[in-house]
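Q: What would this chain look like folded?
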Amino acid sequence: MISAPPISVFPKCYFDDLVAGRRNYVEWIHDAATLGGEGVEHYDEFFPSYDERDVTPVMDAMAATGQISSMMCFSPDFTHPDPDERARQVKQQKRAIDLTVRTGARHCRTLSGQKYPGLSIAEGVARAAECITRSLEYAVKQDVVLCLENHYKVGSWLYPEFAQQEEPFLALLDALPYSAHNQHWGVQYDPSNALIAGIDPIAFLEKIKHRVVTMHASDRFLAPGTTLDELLSKDGTVGYPDQMTHGETGKGTNDYDAIFRILRSVNFTGWISVEDGMDGLDELRRSVDFLKTKRAQYYGASSPRQ
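A: My prediction, written as structure tokens:
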């Protein structure tokens, strides 16, 4: 029997407050310890700085609560039209890889960048692939796995994710040297982001299932008056808050039975990180419990890998 995927938690409920410094990240680490997960996913901007004075207290809290780091979430803009800015973004990605190592995690989320007006798929893929390749070379040296997420949009960005849609996402994967770095390169799958992009999350997972190394677990609920068919017909450029709301995992539109069935079919054992809790920690705790139930259903009684 293979190991079951371990489950970590990510504070979607406190995201803006943590980035802005209105909430203390060490306090969140202690909150996370009460939720029943097996790890914590970090976001680089939750740390006030990369200095030891700001990283050490977080890691001390992790140790004191017996938790481990599942992943570092980072959001580079590799499609920026300015080559100098793209070089700066690569430098920042490398710093995030170093921070990943310092937290004891092995996976670091990466993105393609923004879908700038007039940017063709070919040019966007070329820009992002060059930057990711340079970042990946460093990740290999640091023994960190870069995970490309099918993301929607970074909150501070003007435009949605370039590789939000299936065509550029798959093209970017094909453009990167997968065979040379298969131990350090993969996909972070997010079923809710696929929905928001107007993509069938299950059909999309079938196409990338052998390359998924981590997953974000959340759920979305259709806004009143919106149908799933209408959502799937969108081109992904319309902001999702008007169409869908964020909520408890397992109670929305995502088919987690199909998701777990597919993941189990390829012996996926990577981290599944719960990304919700908009209505409080109890909601996040219920989401963790739901995923544990599905894990037991599809993976049996095996212990999660840690």
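The chain has a mean pLDDT of 90.
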